[in-house]
Structures are given as C-alpha cells and as structure tokens.
Write a structure and sequence with these properties.
Blueprint (H helix, E strand, L loop, with lengths): L3 H24 L6 H4 L18 H18 L1 H12 L4 H23 L6
Length: 119
C-alpha cells in the first residue's frame, strides 16, 4: 500500500502520454507532399546526396575521445581527497597509480593499432 501513490502517478503518466499520442495521430494533418518528405537542414536546402557516408575512423576517434574523457573524470575526486587520505595510508595512491597504468596501456594499444592516424 505504500507504493500506491507511485503506481497512480505511473498510471496517470502512461495514460496521459497514450492519450496525447493517439489524439495527435487522429487529429493531426495528413497532407503528404514531396516537399515535406525532403531532408531539412536548418533552413538551407540540401546539397548533393543526403546519404553521405562517414569514415569509420571518425566514429572510432569519437568513441576513443569519450572513453578517455570519461576516464579522466575519475581524476577529479582523487584530486579533491588526495591530501586527506594520503596521511592515513598510501593505498589510495597505489590504486590511482594502477588506474593510470591501465589507462596508459590502453592509450599505447590505441596508438600501436593506428586508430588515431589519418591517412
């Protein structure tokens, strides 16, 4: 019984969302035209083929950037509590060294595979 308000809120949310989607599909305009089906880029008519293929290297560099960027976020909490815990024991310093080592091995692996080279 203590979850009854949550279930009511969930039911109201799902019901309202369903009603809004159904009403928009029944009451919305259904006029089709070739102009509406063309791709639209910020008010500029598209130039050339809209199915332009990007190199896989672009996605690989983007994913590697996200990976190393997210791992770099873990340095901030360490930097904030470094002085506080170093006086107690050096375990946190050893763990951060281990983390940096794994990060460095991953970076060397990426460099040796040539993932960051543009030909």
């Amino acid at each position: 019984m203590q979850y009854l308000p949550v279930l009511i809120l969930l039911g109201v949310g799902l019901g309202l969302g369903t009603v809004i989607i159904l009403l928009s599909s029944f009451l919305g305009p259904k006029i089709k035209s070739s102009m509406k089906d063309t791709p639209f880029e910020c008010g500029v008519p598209p130039l050339g083929d809209t199915k332009h293929r990007f190199s896989v290297r672009f996605y690989l560099v983007a994913i590697l950037f996200l990976l190393f960027d997210v791992e770099a976020i873990f340095f901030f909490p360490f930097a904030l509590i470094y002085r506080e815990f170093l006086s107690v024991n050096a375990f946190i310093l050893v763990e951060m060294g281990f983390f940096v080592g794994i990060l460095f091995v991953g970076y060397i692996y990426v460099l040796r595979k040539g993932a960051l080279e543009w030909e």
